[in-house]
């Protein structure tokens, strides 16, 4: 806990007529680490402010609201946004991300069994491996086709 001094009340009567009252209150504020607004979070993660608002709307990310309505995020939001972006880049639908995200943190699952979800993630990984293998086969077939076409073209040019 850190102590923060906040001037609470300062009343002064003009022209020296009366008493001056100064009152200060000391408030203890729990330090929560580095805080940042949406623009800084966007800059640090490469996610647009619009995406960050969307993640928050889906419940994937949380922020505190300041008195002026601005969002304020703690430093753990950077890792959360990076994880969300990675899962989206891997092709995860946001519905699955909502269920998987609590299983990715250091604190562990938030009241849910992650076993079923992790099996689904493993299935997605295996599907990606199969797609990658098919892409490699297709690339190799195209490479062979190009090599044969190039050889055929050079033979035809040599025959002319």
TrEMBL record:
SUPFAM superfamilies attached here?
A: Putative DNA-binding domain
CDD domains attached here?
HTH_MerR-like_sg3
Looking up PROSITE patterns in the UniProt record yields:
HTH_MERR_2
Keyword field: DNA-binding, Repressor, Transcription, Transcription regulation
Where does the record place a coiled coil?
none
Protein name, per record: HTH merR-type domain-containing protein
What are the HTH merR-type domain coordinates in residue numbering?
A: 35-103
Write down the Pfam families for this protein, in alphabetical order.
MerR_1 (PF13411)
Family matches, as InterPro entries? DNA-bd_dom_put_sf, MerR-type_HTH_dom, MerR_fam
Question: Transmembrane residues, as ranges?
Answer: none
């Amino acid at each position: 806990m850190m102590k923060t001094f906040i001037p609470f009340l300062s009343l002064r009567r003009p022209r020296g007529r009366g008493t001056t009252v100064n009152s200060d209150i000391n408030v203890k504020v729990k330090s929560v680490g580095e805080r940042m607004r949406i623009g800084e979070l966007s800059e640090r993660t490469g996610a647009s402010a619009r995406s960050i608002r969307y993640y928050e709307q889906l419940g994937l990310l949380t922020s505190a609201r300041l008195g002026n309505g601005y969002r304020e995020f703690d430093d753990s939001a950077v890792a959360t946004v990076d994880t969300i972006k990675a899962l989206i880049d891997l092709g995860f639908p946001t519905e699955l991300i909502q269920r998987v995200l609590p299983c990715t943190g250091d604190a562990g699952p938030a009241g849910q069994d992650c076993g079923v979800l992790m099996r689904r993630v493993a299935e997605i990984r295996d599907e990606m491996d199969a797609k990658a293998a098919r892409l490699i086969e297709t690339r190799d077939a195209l490479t062979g086709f190009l090599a044969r076409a190039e050889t055929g073209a050079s033979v035809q040019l040599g025959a002319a």
